[in-house]
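Q: I'm writing a short explainer about succinate dehydrogenase for a general audience and would like to include a description of its predicted shape. Could you first generate the structure from this sequence?
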Amino acid sequence: MNEQKTVRFIVTRQDTADSAPYNEEFEIPYRPNMNVISALMEIRRNPVNKKGEKTTPITWDMNCLEEVCGACSMNINGKPRQSCTALVDQLEQPIRLAPMNTFPVTRDLQVDRSRMFDTLKRVKAWVPIDGTYDLGPGPRMPERKRQWAYELSKCMTCGVCLEACPNVNSKSNFIGAQPLSQVRLFNAHPTGAMNRDERLETIMSEGGLEGCGNSQNCVQSCPKGIPLTTSIAALNREATVHSFRRFFGSDHAVD
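A: Of course. Here's the predicted structure. Afterward I'll give you a sentence or two in plain language.
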């Protein structure tokens, strides 16, 4: 009788936010087309490690399971990515799972991404509407601008680009590529442009554009293929123009 094929996982675990991390190994039956999420669910169904010891179920975040929500980001074999689209057949074993280092660990593979969401508030990555009256249909964007703006709008706030960036860490206040790209997106929006100067002032301050080391890691790791470095380059040009306008006291917008 043929021996059943199995899959090995080494998971970096952490019981609480303040406790020390440790590794725990698991071995589960192999199934074709299995992704990391389904493997974690199998371990949760029967939380027994490779030594045969009963253990606690692994904690992680997930939601859509189709690479839309961005919740299931983690380091898989040393690379930040979405665990819902990481297929076991395409990964070298043992498969090593670890939480993202950029964000504080809550428990096991679950992290607190408040740093990223707070930055989006800081740069006002939204179109300000108070909702007290009907504004009617919004202004139309030229088709050419709409096409590249749509590419930026694919961002699912997964945090992978921040995890891959060497300049985003506990010793740096660099906000990272994700919020910078969102600044470009909302500055290009006909209604969002009313807050363009305010957003530019924010990213020209400490922790903004000057923190980018142009490593290109963000654009290489983005699961949606968003042109993040292109956005940063465009924002640098906008910031330069804005600086000249501010220096010469011009109130006229420059495209």
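A: For your explainer, you could say: The radius of gyration is 22 Å.
Q: Perfect, that's easy to follow.
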